[in-house]
Amino acid sequence: MAVRSEPRWFKSSYSGGSGTECVECARAHGCTLVRDSSRADGPVIGVRARAWQAFIEGLTAEA
User: Fold this and answer.
1) 6 part of a folded domain
2) Does 13 fall in a domain?
3) Per-position DSSP letters for the chain, written without gaps between them
4) Which side of the chain, N or C, has fewer Cβ within a 10 Å radius?
């Protein structure tokens, strides 16, 4: 039986450097989790893998 672990959160490289605009992400089965790092116990948004990929591709196309 597989043991389920807590998500491993990491700060987005697109977050601001002032500490006030931090977004954290974590990979989960079939999706990416997103939350406000200043509210770690707050709401979490789950984004399906294909939608997340399209989002990232859109960001890199604009850079």
Assistant:
1) no
2) no
3) -PPP-----EE-TTS-TTSSS-EEEEEETTEEEEEEGGGTTS--EEEEHHHHHHHHHHHHHH-
4) N
